[in-house]
Amino acid sequence: MSIIMSLNSGSSSCKAQLYQMPEEKVLCSALFERIGQSVGNITFELENAKHTDEVLLPNHKVAIEILLKLLIKHGVISSLDDISGIGHRIVHGGEKYKHSALFNAEVEADIEALIDLAPLHNPANLLGYRVMKELLPNVTQVAVFDTAFHQSMEPVSFMYPIPIEYYQKYRIRKYGFHGTSHLYVTSRARSILGEDQSRRLICCHLGNGGSLSAVKDGECVNTSMGFTPLAGIMMGTRSGDIDPSIMAYLAEKEELSAVKITDICNKKSGILGISQVSSDMRDIEEAINQGNKQAELARAMYVQRVGMTIGSYIAQLGGCDAILFTAGIGENSSIVRKLIIDSITDAFGVTLDDKKNSLRKQEIEISSVESKIKVFVIPTNEELVIAQDTYQLYSVN
Ligand code: AMP
């Protein structure tokens, strides 16, 4: 038996889960929020107990030190030596990392060099690794990349039609994100349906950020996010794909820098930008129920974009065996799932069983018996993929 930690160190939060491997048993979960702010929040969950606390979390090191103390205090481990491996979520692994990798100086330097491409994420991810290395220097540490699953895309799917020198000089291409989620959800579908019945899958990861992937025989052939997570479908606060010349036009009209316009497209656009209500689909649904037309428009735009992306992936895959919904909206909003599927029913003959679609937070097939494409809700589990990869690399080393 080995104890493996999956760690997601974000800019102001840190999420950890401890697994007993190879049984894949979750021993505890911890969430540290508002790191660096005046008061931080800790949520620590054991199998049948949940503790919450407000405490000063000036930096990630303090948060991780508290985490390690809590693990011992609550008897999850008896000493820090019980931890065999730590898997770190790393958002950007560029073109080099097609699989997870054992951390060493080279991997660390590569992630550092990629900060340019993921300025919000890679520094925080790296910080989690560095703190752990300082506190637990002898523990195996593994980098699990969000981009790795999408590295199977062919140039025809990942290249942008701009002068090729920009790819050659700067590696400007589609990378795709949410890879561990797409991998987990499509792997689950393949084991539920059997490989022959799941050769062509479309995975819709619809959370605050959102992306779709087209997966053929277990390999990603296309995905909606791009060079950065700003591309693809409309999201909570992100615009997704827009005419690129809007950026220069707005920069001139509003006398703003390109960086500022990109920031607006990242943080003030999407569902929030159109509705002016919220980026959260729950608030949008409530506002629609109260007759808010902008909220209704925001949801309709969101639904249309997801539906059109599914349609384009059905074309690329030459058909589709199953459409999979996951993440916050995909797992919880039966109305959004229904609207998306309704928007493509006439084109593809896919329909839902409304009763099954109304169930929440469970792995379930929700298509009707007549549907030409199966539809599933599969709750994602990125932490498990991180723990599995970490355990695997720990075991062979
Ligand atoms: P995630 O990024 O996967 O954590 O998803 C977060 C998003 O899921 C939130 O911002 C909401 O938009 C959405 N969400 C969560 N729960 C619900 C729900 N019950 N109904 C509709 N949307 C939800």
Summarize the structure.
Helices cover 40% and strands 21% of the residues. The chain contains 15 helices and 14 strands. The structure holds adenosine monophosphate (AMP).
| Largest pleated sheet | 8 strands, mixed
Uncertain spans: none
Distance between the termini: 16 Å
**Helicity range of the residues?**
40-55%
Structural class label: alpha/beta
Description:
It is a single chain. This protein is α/β, with parallel strands linked by helices and 397 residues long. The chain is 40% helix and 21% strand. It contains 15 helices and 14 strands. Strands 5-4-3-2-1-6-8-7 form an eight-stranded mixed sheet, sandwiched between helices. Strands 11-10-9-12-14-13 form a six-stranded mixed sheet, with helices on both faces. It is globular, with a radius of gyration of 21 Å. The two termini are 16 Å apart. Adenosine monophosphate binds at residues 207-208, 236, 280-282, 327-329, 332-333.
Keywords:
397 residues; binds adenosine monophosphate; eight-stranded mixed beta sheet; alpha/beta; 14 strands; six-stranded mixed beta sheet; globular
Question: How would the blueprint of this fold be written?
Answer:
Layout: E1 2-9, E2 14-21, E3 25-33, E4 40-46, E5 49-55, H1 60-73, E6 83-90, E7 101-102, H2 105-113, H3 122-135, E8 140-145, H4 155-158, H5 165-170, H6 179-193, E9 200-206, E10 210-216, E11 219-223, H7 245-253, H8 258-267, H9 270-275, H10 281-289, H11 293-317, E12 322-326, H12 327-332, H13 334-348, H14 354-357, E13 364-365, E14 374-377, H15 382-395
Parallel strand pairs: 1-6, 6-8, 9-12, 12-14
Antiparallel strand pairs: 1-2, 2-3, 3-4, 4-5, 7-8, 9-10, 10-11, 13-14
The chain binds adenosine monophosphate.
